[in-house]
Amino acid sequence: MQECSEETIERFYTVAESYIRQKMPYRDAIEIAAVTIGGLIPAKVSHAMIKYQEAMHPRSHLYHESNKDALALLSMGVLWDNEYFLPVPVNENTPLENTLAESIYFIMSYAKEEDGLIKVLQANSLCSGDVHTRAKSIQRILGII
Question: Does the pTM exceed 0.90?
């Protein structure tokens, strides 16, 4: 599967931040920025939204799992690469578009709660993978609110 360039992902964050500064709700800003930038970004955002909806739906198996966030990240690998994967250790490079999707999953899952940014960052820190890059992405979107 083709990867997004760092420049494309940076443009996505810049556009989303701009919309949020204009008082657009973060979910709308994320979705509109994805469509505006195009390429593979809308697909990655869509994958994150689908996994968030599955994790939050009381009839889904994932909803009832105690470690649903870690399982959600693992299962998103099927959507990304059409194969299962293990989270990438922190010292290895994670494809940036996957880190973007993981970050959006956490934002959608926890940002609405009181102290949303703190809750999103806590949930992120409990999962394997590139926690640092995800945290930076999360802070770019939610740090503006």
Answer: no
**Three-state SS at 143:** coil
Q: pLDDT averaged over the chain?
A: 86
What are the residue ranges spanned by the domains of the chain? 6-142
C-alpha distance across the termini of the chain, in Å = 34
Question: Looking at residue 1, what is its pLDDT?
Answer: 45
What per-residue confidence (pLDDT) applies to 8? 93
> Which tokens go with 111?
């940002």
State how far the Cα of 142 lies from the Cα of 67, in Å rounded to an integer. Answer: 23
Give me the DSSP letters along 3-49. Answer: PPPHHHHHHHHHHHHHHHHTT--HHHHHHHHHHHH-TTHHHHHHHHH
